[in-house]
Amino acid sequence: xxxxxxxxxxIAAEVTGTTALKASDGFSxxxxxxxxxxxxxxxxYLLGLTLEELPVGLVYATWxxxxxxxxxxxxxxxxxxxxxxxxxxGMALVVAGVVVLNALSDAYxxxx
Length: 112
Known about the structure:
By secondary structure, the protein is mostly helical.
């Protein structure tokens, strides 16, 4: 499997697990609690596969950065949480950092 596809699946699993963590109501709801466990275990398994092909700094920065933004957006859409202009700017900076790291940094360029 392509490492960026594996990374995207790891991010999706982590965001799912974190969303379920909110829905678990302090682990008092069994179904969301099970989704938390499956989401996090799946995410770390997929991260492990991704790390077989990509550098740890690139993988972790992308996983964490995209996960932060996606989870915040899920909070707005699903849990009716609010976000202000500073939050939008902060998330844009996180996305910009991930793009710069992945697209422009020579430190993580594939070896030829």
